[in-house]
Amino acid sequence: MISRFSLTTCNSGICPVFSSREVPGWRMANNVFGRTNVKNTRLQIRPYQTGVIDLWRACNLIVPWNNPVSDIERKLQVNPELFLVGLLAGKIVATVFGGYDGHRGWINYLAVYPDHQRQGFGRQIVAVVEDKLRAMGCPKINLQVRESNTGVISFYKAVGYTDDAVISLGKRLVDDPEYDA
Ligand SMILES: CC(C)(COP(=O)(O)OP(=O)(O)OC[C@H]1O[C@@H](n2cnc3c(N)ncnc32)[C@H](O)[C@@H]1OP(=O)(O)O)[C@@H](O)C(=O)NCCC(=O)NCCS
Question: Which atom of ligand 1 is nearest to the CA of 149?
Answer without folding.
Answer: 44
